[in-house]
Amino acid sequence: MEYIKLGKSDLNVSRVILGTWAIGGTQWGDLNKQDAVKAVETAIDNGMNCIDTAPAYGEGRAEELIGGVIRNRRESIILATKCGLDFSRRFSIDLSKEFINKDLDNSLKRLDTDYIDLYQCHWPDRKTPIEETMHALLELQQKGKIRYFGVSNFSAEQIAESARHADIVSLQPQYSLLDRGIESGIQDICVEKDIAIISYGSLGAGILTGKYEQRPAFDKKDARNFFYRFFSEKHWPKVAALVEEMKKMAEEKGTSPGHLAIAWLLSRDGVAATLAGARTPEQVLDNCEAVNLRLSEEELAGLTALSDSLNAE
Question: Is residue 124 within 8 Å of residue 85, measured between CB atoms?
Fold first, then answer.
């Protein structure tokens, strides 16, 4: 595993971070809890020293599962969670000082810890002034409840406004060969202000592993149905064509499409680490191996070119 300093912080995180939305037990089909526990343990045992989660993942269940696994090795783990999605009110967005304080206390209980290493605003709140949100996070930092904080899904303008009030160390955006939206301004401001990018959706909810031979159908409540547009009938032909070309490249390179996708991300400007979700130990081990892949400038440019038509829409 490789490690990197996260922006302006002193957190040295693994370049592949365990994503845990899929082990919340909702929105991702059936979950085998025993496998999920083993997946978290395997991640830690194989050098993934950072685990990313959120209260919204399974309405607290993912945090509870992680808390149980890390109880006896908390000091060796960089724990990242989020705030601002109130699942008791149909996942309404609330980054007010009052709700952040409540949200953090609930996360600390579920995770069985007294501090969070990286606390992230899950989605921007258009009702609450960013200044109020940042000041609330600064107070929690001063109290020792959080070490550092960042944002997720913020626009370039919202990142700039946040940075005017506090030192945010990271941005967590959706970013992959399937979705390069942050390259239109967001990536630039992160590089300029030394705000580390931690990509999510890095494997396109599994698409970029090459495991789907045909367009899959999911329950309407499944995240792959309502959150990731790539599975739609409209987008699937171009997505499938991209993956087929990646399979050819991977075969020539002696690797896998998923490893290509992760290696490409880790080469991008400002990207410190990439989130990779997993629900089994085997998936974790496969994602860990991607860190060892080295691609030439020509190979990286080839992957970029493959994704250009998909992202030109």
Answer: no
